[in-house]
């Protein structure tokens, strides 16, 4: 599929097929029957930037996005985590300045507060190395700042109304004392 066709349809590659542009519309200009235009393309056309040239080619950058999802502990300073994720992206050699990296607070998970970094790159050829580099940089920055990356934790509640029998078993023995 050509880049021009992708622009026409308003599809962009984030590396995750579950994300589609929110601004996809079904309006069809009369001079281009059968083409679905999105609001970015309509805005470029209204500004006289549609139809080729360096500016039109640079708009393909919007589709080249590296995403990093991080779950931080509920006790974490979310604003500091946000700041460190942006910092890690800006320091990465493959992340472009325009559009700049964006972090969103995605939600309250079972075990963590979920943050999502979107960092734009010039080519999808660098996506995997960029994602890896961003994960490493964020992990290092979080450790230095004392921000914990959350992991699943469970509380175990015991019924203490009756005595609890505890038996220490050595390696290779079943609870009854038999050898396995």
What does this structure look like?
- There is one protein chain.
- The longest helix has 19 residues, at 127-145.
- The chain has a 3-stranded antiparallel β-sheet.
- By secondary structure, the protein is an alpha+beta fold.
- Helix content is 30%, strand content 13%.
- Mean pLDDT is 74; it is low at 1-29 and 50-59.
User: What is the beta-strand fraction?
Assistant: 5-15%
**Separate helix tally:** 5
Question: What is the radius of gyration computed over CA atoms, rounded to a whole number of angstroms?
Answer: 25 Å
Number of domains: 2
Label the overall shape.
elongated
The secondary-structure class comes to alpha+beta
The unreliable regions are 1-29, 50-59
CATH class of the largest domain: Alpha Beta
Instruction: Give helix and strand order, one letter per element, not per position.
Output: HHHEHEEH
Write the CATH fold name of the largest domain: Alpha-Beta Plaits
Helix content: 25-40%
Question: What topology emerges from the helices and strands here?
Answer:
Elements: H1 3-9, H2 39-46, H3 53-58, E1 65-72, H4 78-91, E2 102-108, E3 113-120, H5 127-145
Task: Give a brief rundown of this model.
By secondary structure, the protein is of the alpha+beta class.
List keywords for this structure.
180 residues, alpha+beta, Alpha-Beta Plaits, three-stranded antiparallel beta sheet, 5 helices, 3 strands, 30% helix, disordered N terminus
């Amino acid at each position: 599929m050509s880049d021009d066709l992708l622009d026409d349809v308003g599809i962009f590659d984030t590396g995750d097929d579950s994300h589609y542009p929110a601004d996809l519309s079904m309006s069809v200009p009369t001079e281009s029957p059968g083409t679905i235009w999105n609001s970015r393309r309509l805005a470029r056309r209204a500004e006289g930037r549609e139809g080729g040239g360096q500016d039109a080619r640079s708009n393909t950058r919007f589709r080249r996005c590296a995403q990093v999802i991080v779950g931080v502990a509920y006790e974490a300073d979310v604003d500091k985590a946000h700041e460190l994720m942006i910092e890690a992206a800006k320091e990465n050699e493959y992340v472009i300045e325009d559009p700049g990296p964006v972090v969103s607070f995605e939600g309250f998970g079972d075990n963590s507060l979920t943050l999502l970094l979107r960092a734009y790159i010039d080519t999808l050829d660098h996506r995997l190395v960029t994602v890896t580099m961003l994960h490493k940089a964020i992990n290092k920055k979080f450790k230095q700042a004392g921000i914990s990356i959350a992991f699943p934790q469970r509380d175990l509640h015991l019924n203490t109304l009756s005595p609890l029998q505890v038996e220490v078993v050595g390696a290779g023995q079943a609870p009854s004392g038999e050898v396995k």
